[in-house]
Amino acid sequence: MADVRSVHTHLQHYAQHMAQLEELRKLLHDQLATADSCPATDPALQRVARGRIAAIWAALERMERGLYGICQCCGGFMAFDQLLRAPDRTACDGCAHARRHEAAA
Could you give the CA distance from residue 88 to residue 105 in angstroms, rounded to a whole number? Predict the structure, then answer.
């Protein structure tokens, strides 16, 4: 017979995970609204804004597909605090650091 406490613990973790995803979804939508509302007359700033908007939409798409929060380099799960700092990120801190280190070399 299954341990009821174990099932309850899993349900608690699932509820916490879903609340965190909802918090990140709201953060992404807030950032999208901010990026969309900034009128840029400089072509360089317009390119940056379009890139930012595309990255946010891509993160929302990954969320819908169930792939959000998975590092596209190592395949590991990204920590919630990393996603809060940059919710549209595609790499964990370790892989992002390695990329910067390789680019500097």
Answer: 26
Q: Are 62 and 2 in contact (CB under 8 A)?
A: no
User: Domain with 95 in it: what CATH number?
Assistant: 1.20.120.910
Q: How far apart are CA 71 and CA 55, in angstroms?
A: 14
Secondary structure (DSSP) of 38-92: ----SHHHHHHHHHHHHHHHHHHHHHHHT-TTB-TTT-PBPPHHHHHH-TT--S-
Looking at the 3D structure of the chain, how many domains does it have?
A: 1
Q: If DSSP codes are grouped into helix, strand and coil, which group holds residue 2?
A: coil
* Tens of pLDDT, residues 41-100: 788 888 888 999 999 999 999 999 999 999 999 999 999 999 999 999 999 999 999 998
- The pLDDT value recorded for residue 48 is 86
Domain region containing 70 = 4-104
Report if pTM > 0.90: no
Cβ neighbours of residue 57 closer than 8 Å, sequence gap 6 or more: 32
